[in-house]
Amino acid sequence: MLDRAAIGRVLPPVTATVERGRLRFFLNAIGETNPIHHDAAAARAAGYRDCPIPPTYLFCLRMLDAPDPYTLIDDLGIDLGTVLHGEQGFTYHQPVVAGDEIRFIARIADIFDRKGGALEFLVEEIRVERVSDGAHMADIRQVTVIRNPIPGGAA
Amino acid sequence: MTADAIHVTVEMPPITRTQLALYGGASGDHNPIHIDIDFAKKAGFPDVFAHGMLVMGLAGRVVTQAVPLARLKSYAVRFAAITQVHDRLTVEAREVGTVEGGTDRRLEVIVRDQNGQVKVQGEAVMSAD
Q1: How far is A34 from chain B (nearest CA, A)?
Q2: Interchain CB contact of A80 with B (< 8 Å)
Q3: Torsion of Cα atoms, A136 then B69 then B119 then A111, to 10°
Q4: What is the C-alpha R_g of chain A?
């Protein structure tokens, strides 16, 4: 079982840069062809400062530039093979575009369990801000599910 | 509901192992459960399976075809079931009304496989104009 004392813990910030080439790999992986994501001129014509990132890429930027994206999983003593993604949410305040440097400040908002501890839920809330001026770009909420091999448990 | 209420359904090509590898690299999500069949089997799964965020990303592509990105205010999903290699996903985004007490428009987003099983269910909120 996860240590409930971790609730409220603020994690070390992660800083990430939206690199054009890396963004292109992501766009190709999901089959996104809209020119505003690929071509800076098309993006500017549509009113953006530069190519905006797709709606889910904030999640990836944090993983791409974290020194080790599984630090929290390791710190909490979780076996990566037991982890599933439960929920993911983004609230957008301003478009993040190619060239932006952004910072992720994550906090463990909750830890709870269901089915007699067979399933545990780790809830993180993450503020996304632009490094250059501290502008609040987005908020992220994510729930990780841990399948605990508990005797008599439902999992 | 207005006459131009959004309702789109998009069929995706089957999920491939190559796609999982490319997505893993491009997303920074290198969890071997999506890439390494030995690891997946050891963890009790029959095979590697798709990143939930790949499915959310594919569905997001449909959302931003229907809604200009600049008007997208939020996008949140629950992962209801694992998406297997070779699954053929269909994304449905359907306008379901406005946010209570405001003019922001709500889109229900559902991803199903070839058997109709719901993989991802969520909601996107867009500004009225």
Answers
A1: 8
A2: yes
A3: 10
A4: 18
Please say if the pLDDT value at position A32 is more than 60. yes
pLDDT of the residue at B3: 54
pLDDT of residue A153: 46
* Residues A121-131: tens digit of each pLDDT: 999 999 999 99
Residue B44 exposed, middle or buried by CB count within 10 Å (0-12, 13-18, 19+): exposed
Bridge partners of A101, per DSSP, are: A17
- In the 8-state DSSP scheme, what is residue B57? H
ipTM for the assembly? 0.95
Cβ contacts of B57 on chain A, cutoff 8 Å: 26, 29-30, 54, 56-57
User: What is the DSSP track for A35-98?
Assistant: HHHH-HHHHHHTT-SSPBPPTTHHHHHHHHHSS-TTHHHHHTT--GGGEEEEEEEEEESS--BT
d(CA B91, CA A104): 29
A82, A88, A94, best to mutate vs chain B, most B CBs in 10 Å: A88
Residue A123, class by beta-carbon neighbours within 10 Å (0-12 exposed, 13-18 middle, 19+ buried)? middle
The encoded tokens of residue A47 equal: 């009113």
Per residue in A85-123, pLDDT (tens digit) is 999 999 999 999 999 999 999 999 999 999 999 999 999
Contact A137, A96 (CB under 8 A): yes
CB B95 within 8 A of CB B36: no
